[in-house]
Amino acid sequence: MVDSAAILLGMIDLAEGAGEIIRHDWDRTKDVRHKGRIDLVTETDVRVEEYLKKGLAGLLPEADFLAEETAPDADASKLTWVIDPVDGTTNFAHGFPFVATSIALWREGRVELGVIHAPMLGEIFSASRGGGAFLNGRPIGVTDNQTLQESVVATGFPYAIEEYVDQITAHLRRLLVIVQGVRRPGSAAIDLAYLAAGRYDGFYEYALNPWDTAAGWLLVEEAGGRVSTFREETPYAFGSKEILATNGRIHRELSELLLLDA
Fold it and tell me: Do 195 and 202 meet the contact criterion of CB atoms below 8 Å apart?
């Protein structure tokens, strides 16, 4: 790869530009369309994605795109930009500030670079393979908590909620009486970034897409955490129907809880 440090700086600059678009549109009337019953897209999603694709093509013209709004079915087996322009579109439409832009560079079967920008929260998370994870330029790391009893765990609810509602409610019923707390802000990118920054100890969710998880996956691993499917021995991959990410110390305990009655 050509000068990954320079490419990462370029990604951060573009993520900041995307944040300017999101902030500009924040208090304006949203042009909201439905891709599904509760799956929304706004004009801002499309404008941010177009802005990012143009800028990222200038950084690496040879890379393909896997992007939520304009290239959701692209082949990510090659050098590929994986983009979520506005992760948390429902939050954006309702003025809830847990909204992020996620940019990742996929190369030869793994994420090499990742940036998550939460513009309404003033935070930029970044990571490079083997180079660590950072928040606003400062190193971050996962927690040292050893048990679920001392842990805060985050989750999310998929758009296909009808398909997963029984599993989701069963998991919550078990977790709520064990952990210190369960959080659900509505942005998987932010959830993974918060785990990397030591704000959560674990995160799990069904039915996420590559653009939801790519940058956060790298952040967690570079911050010292672990990512798998609900079965701890099965590596997470694009196309996995679920994701489990933790500080590594509670991974087995949380995996076993999620697999009860599976």
Answer: yes
